[in-house]
Amino acid sequence: MDNLFAPAVGEWQRVSPRLATVRRILLSSAAAVVVLVGVVLVLVLPDLWWIGTPVAVIGLAGGVWGWTWAGRNQRSWGYAENADDLLVTRGVMFKRLVAIPYGRMQFVDVEAGPLDRAYGIATVTLHTASSETAADIPGLPAEEATRLRNRLTELGESRGAGL
């Protein structure tokens, strides 16, 4: 079954482990807010402990789950540059493989929020006419995102010239 998701040529290029770090920071922050709300409910309204306690426990459980998920998700991302298309794979439980022909690319986005920039990573998004074949590659080191954007733009222009 693993051959189903193997690139035809070469090996998968993996995204930066810093993607997991950024996602852990975001998920931990959200979980901390939920835990804090639960604790405040218990302290301020002790008669409603039966609401505050589950909220705090759910926040804590969500934080632990998110911490584990971030690492597994980061390790599942990969991309491979073939002669005619770009392959992008992701997913742990439900794997997905998208093949995007260079000639079908309309434009390439590079995006990085403040936390992404602080950790030196970016997301490259490939757009085609079909929303089904658009693909994101999050967590690329900034230099690799720039290289990939330039290469894909160049290949897209040369391959799409006959359309």
Automatic annotation (TrEMBL):
UniProt keyword list: Membrane, Transmembrane, Transmembrane helix
First and last residue of the signal peptide: none
Segments crossing the lipid bilayer: 25-45, 51-70
Domain YdbS-like PH: residue ranges: 75-152
UniProt KW Metal-binding keyword: no
UniProt entry tagged with the keyword Nuclease: no
UniProt cross-references to PANTHER family, sorted A to Z: TRANSMEMBRANE PROTEIN-RELATED, UPF0699 TRANSMEMBRANE PROTEIN YDBS
Protein name: PH domain-containing protein
Organism phylogeny: Bacteria, Bacillati, Actinomycetota, Actinomycetes, Propionibacteriales
